[in-house]
Each structure stands twice: as structure tokens, then as C-alpha cells.
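go over whats below:
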Amino acid sequence: MTTPTFVYDGDCAFCTSCAQFIERRIPTRARLVPWQFADLGALGLTTDQCEEAVQWVGDRRASGPDAFALLLRDAGRMWRVAGATLGWGPVRLVAWPIYRWVSEHRHMLPGGTPACSLPQAQRDRM
């Protein structure tokens, strides 16, 4: 079995803080990597997909809250229950709008910066 990869936006301070929390507190086998430093072609991902949402690449592929659900399931024990709950149909229906809201407002959340709200093309020009 290959090591799963969880891809996030490394230019976003909020996303990076979340990834650091995961690395410290959630015992996943996944490799957490900012998409800016990932070999997206080898992972079968595009820049657009990575700008849109976090990505999970493993035996299955997922994005956004579905990626978080797989990451939590991978972590085992109590995390597996949280991941199964997040992946459950009714919860998924609520999770996606919440994920989109957080994604669109991450620059206003703790650890976020104004650069978090800009598309990558605009960040590259900064």
C-alpha cells in the first residue's frame, strides 16, 4: 500500500496552521505537503484542483471535507469514528457548504493573512 498524501495550500497561513495541528495531533500515515512543493503531475492533480480545496491522494481520491474524512479514517481509533461521521451522507451535505465558507473566509480566521484570499496567480505577483 502506498503512503497517502494530503495536499493543502502552503501559501495560506490558516491552512498551514491546520496542517501543523494535524501533524502534531492526528496520527495519520499520510504525508502532508503544500501543493506548491508537491509533484502535482505525479499525484494526478492540477493547480486548479489544489486552489479549490485540500486533496487526498491514496487508494481513493477526495477533496475538501471528503479529504478530511479519509485523513481521519486513516488515523485510526477515535479519529476513524470522526472520519466516518464526516463522510456520512447527511453530514457531508452540511460539511461541504461549511468547508466552502471557511475556504472563502480563511483570510479572516485565526492565523489567516490577506494573501490567503488571493488566487495563486495574484499571489505569484506579490
Observations:
- Helices lie at 13-25, 40-43, 47-52, 64-74, 77-87, 89-105, 120-124.
